[in-house]
Amino acid sequence: MKHTIQKIYIGLILILLYAPIATLIVLSFNASKTRAKWGGFTLKWYGELFQNEAIMGALTHTLLIAFLSAVIASVIGTAACLGILHMRKRTRTIFLGITNIPMLNADIVTGISLMLLYLAFGASFGFSTVLMAHITFNIPYVILSVMPKLSQMNYSTYEAGLDLGGSPAYVFFVIVFPEIFPGILSGFLMAFTMSLDDFIITHFTKGPGIDTLSTKIYTELKKGIKPEIYSLSTLLFLSVLILLLIINLKPDKRKEMTAQ
Amino acid sequence: MNNRRSKFLAAPYALWAAGFILIPLGMIFYYGFTARKGGFTLDNITAIAEPGNMKALILSLILSLISTIICFILAYPLAWILANMKFGKGSFVIIIFILPMWMNFLLRTLAWQSLLEKNGVINTILSFFHLPALKIINTPYAIVLGMVYNFLPFMVLPIYNALEKIDDNIINAAKDLGANRMQTFSRIIFPLSIPGVISGITMVFVPALTTFVISDLLGGGKILLIGNIIEKEFTQDGNWNSGSGLSFVLMIFIIISMILTAKYDTSKEESAP
Questions:
Q1: Which CATH superfamily groups domain B51-239+248-271?
Q2: What residues of chain B lie within 8 A of the CB of A133, using their CB?
Q3: What CATH number does the domain containing A111 carry?
Q4: Is A213 within the bounds of a domain?
Q5: Phi-psi group of A20: left, alpha or beta (phi > 0 → left; psi -120 to 50 → alpha; rest → beta)
Q6: pTM of whole model > 0.80?
Q7: In this predicted complex, what is the ipTM?
Q8: Residue A102: its chain B contacts at CB < 8 A?
């Protein structure tokens, strides 16, 4: 009895979370151009999607920015964690406090503050300004998932490696890196997802010449969304879903990698 | 020796944080306290008291508070059930809540338009069962729904993490010592989950307070929140000074929640191994 109620409750929350997604997937097969009515089943939009250069361009920018910002954030963030670990307690508190700012601050304030920075330095708005903004809000996600792994690690193993004659860099890559890799990976995935889903910060830091999927959708909101966007989102969503299912259904080491 | 050098690994991040976190915040202070023609002024800050701005701020505060409360009420039992299911290291739970983010945030919110519209999906289902239609699109109720929908994961995940960390032995000890279920919950489990609750509250309250997209899409463009006003100052009116002033006022609320979080974060560190 108790378990049934619990299952119903989880089910209702999942419906709340996934109802809009189901709606969008259904819309991607809708032959009618408007969202308001169902015009029959079609695969037309999936074909036209790949011919639509504006959408494919926005997709390329989105994926490129997500990938580059997640990689750069992972490198800077992991290095920062190694450094922070060796700091005195007070310096460490200050560092972690600053790390919290982009996470806790409102996106609109982060976006505006970066926009003002770029304006003050006369930067030309475009791909690089968006990329730098995304790196900025991604680093905290990496630090937050690498830091716990690093502080759990036994420091003696690192010292043992050094005693046995390994150089610090060698010991890092052979002993420390495999230990903290799950943390780096989950930080990377989190950063990638956050970058992909961001609209507000991109909205303030992009120039007129470049669009990501979010900003493209925002400008289309007024004119009416092109159905190709729904099919693109469906493809993106389903490919991630399938990827995650493959990783998680294999009961081997890989499972640990996605876990935090 | 080695320790001293290791510290410099944080140098790139220190530079990055200074350049892209601290200096930009300084720019907001600078513009916020500067008149358009130059010179120090408080006008941009006191502009919050103008009727239109004040109304938007109060509405934002009310809607984000309601959303935060609803998120908490929905999330706590959910996190509790999920934590008791013992999924091990929780990748499954995290995936359920992160996965929707792969469908664009604007599209997900837009989909609620289709669901809530006068002739939308929900009303079609309701009319099929001869139930009265749901008329909440373009009202503050729809905005609250959009906020709860978008930010619920940020409430569930921290509470789930806090609950999952609680050692079963502590709960068993409480029961052995004669505590009933209510007492175990109120004296042991809930206090231990407070850090998660606090970080969940800030993670929901801050984006809800400052959103402009959700009110744009589900409020029909007529309901202005403080985020809408700030966004307009920057993108339409090009008035960075008053936009910065209003952002500064928003930051005061954010700083209050950051102080609260920091206070409870220290207790978290102590309990860490």
A1: MetI-like (1.10.3720.10)
A2: 20
A3: 1.10.3720.10
A4: yes
A5: alpha
A6: yes
A7: 0.85
A8: 21
